[in-house]
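Worked problem 6 (solution included).
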Amino acid sequence: MTTQESPKKGGLRGFFRRLTAGQAELEAAELREDLACHGATPIAACGERQRFRVAGTLRTVTLRPRGGAPALEAELYDGSDVIDLVWLGRRRIAGIEPGRLVRAEGLVSFQDGRKVMFNPRYELRPAS
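Solution. The predicted structure is:
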């Protein structure tokens, strides 16, 4: 009687992959694994003009006027890609700061070749 065993997560091949991978690559893989349980779509898989739920870490948060009105912009990274979250008419949102884990939901569009979500619903996630 033979049974198929599923390959061990990592194993020797995984050990050598982690050994030779760069720090940024390791952090991206770890972030993707952590965020898979949040029911989020990988940012790289998000298409234009569709609603998605994404989750990741805020890399940067900046105040940048758009059309004469204030706009708070945050770059969200999930290990696969980045998306800009933009809250129009806002100068600051408590808890929206670099390094924070966030889950956001909204309509994805493209602007200047980058994925953007305007006025998304968001949830601040506790650090794991």
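Discussion: The beta strands are 50-63, 71-77, 82-88, 101-111, 114-118, 121-125.
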